[in-house]
Amino acid sequence: MEPTQMCPRFERAVEMLSKRWTSFIVFQLLGGPLRFVQIEQSLPNLSGKVLSERLKELEAEGIINRHVYPETPVRIEYSLTAKGLALAPILKEIGNWSSEWLPVPCTPEA
Amino acid sequence: MEPTQMCPRFERAVEMLSKRWTSFIVFQLLGGPLRFVQIEQSLPNLSGKVLSERLKELEAEGIINRHVYPETPVRIEYSLTAKGLALAPILKEIGNWSSEWLPVPCTPEA
DNA sequence: AATGATAGTTACTTAATGTAACCTAGTTTA
DNA sequence: TAAACTAGGTTACATTAAGTAACTATCATT
Q1: Which residues form the HTH hxlR-type domain (chains A, B) (predicted)?
Q2: CATH at B32
Q3: Is A36 at the interface with chain B, CB within 8 A?
Q4: How far apart are CA B78 and CA B28, in angstroms?
Q5: Does some domain include residue A100?
Q6: Which protein residue lies nearest to nucleotide C25, measured between its Cα and the C1' atom?
Q7: Looking at the complex, does the CB of residue A96 fall below 8 Å from at least one CB of chain B?
Q8: Residue A106 located in a structural domain
Q9: Is B81 within 7 A of strand C by CB distance?
């Protein structure tokens, strides 16, 4: 068999989603807008430093919006754009695959 | 909005697919079995070192098979298992998303 | 003035990748 | 006989990405 030539757009999409934490951040935002600390808390091993980088990348890609509410203290919410919401079917398929093919993790003893 | 609790299996699947090169290797194998050098050549920036690591991980996960043909010189082919083939819909969705939402790259001048 | 909240950033450490040279085994070529 | 070739990797070293903990800025409350 021959290797397959890849579409540059497909390649770019895979590269984006392959960046550590990207898919998790998008998944969390599928539930609705979240603030920085909320995302941080929902992903215990994600550091604020990397979260900050990813949010900037995703905003630059047009996948998320950053909305500043000038209250005191200031509140900033991150939410998905239409382009970001459109990633949902991908995550859905990952969910389908994982529930069909990955073993149920051990449950703690009663 | 509240952060969403994640299923451990979903989490594991995302972690796997987020590892650099994993999705590309699976994509290439969707076209049929390939040898080490073929995968290496189809993914120009993937080093033999990391390819070797990823193939071992994917085999350990039950996503690919390693088949040794005792010819001379020996030929070794990597192919997807049923579990690996079942990843196709995920990559398909990534393809759909990328062709709908990512810009067509500039084409070189005529 | 000190304390607290939100939303980050910075300096430093550790882990993951990339690069290039090398290894092993069998085979053909000089 | 030995040098060279092929396939399928591995090893040592350099670079980049990610993790950790402390710190910054702004405004408000105690």
Answers
A1: 7-106
A2: 1.10.10.10
A3: no
A4: 10
A5: no
A6: B73
A7: yes
A8: no
A9: no
Dig out the tokens for B62 from the structure: 């039950």
Distance from CA of A61 to the nearest CA of B (A): 9
CB pairs under 8 A between A and B: 140
Footprint of strand D on the protein (CB under 7 A): A 19-21, 45-50, 53, 72-73; B 35-37, 48-49, 52, 55, 66, 73-77
Asked if residues A98 and B7 have their Cβ atoms less than 8 Å apart, the reply is yes
In total, chain B counts a number of residues equal to: 110
pTM for the predicted model, two decimal places = 0.95
Q: What is the pLDDT along chain B (110 residues), one digit of tens a residue?
A: 678 889 999 999 999 999 999 999 999 999 999 999 999 999 999 999 999 999 999 999 999 999 999 888 899 999 999 999 999 999 999 999 999 999 988 766 64
Q: The domain containing residue A39 runs over which residues? A: 8-94
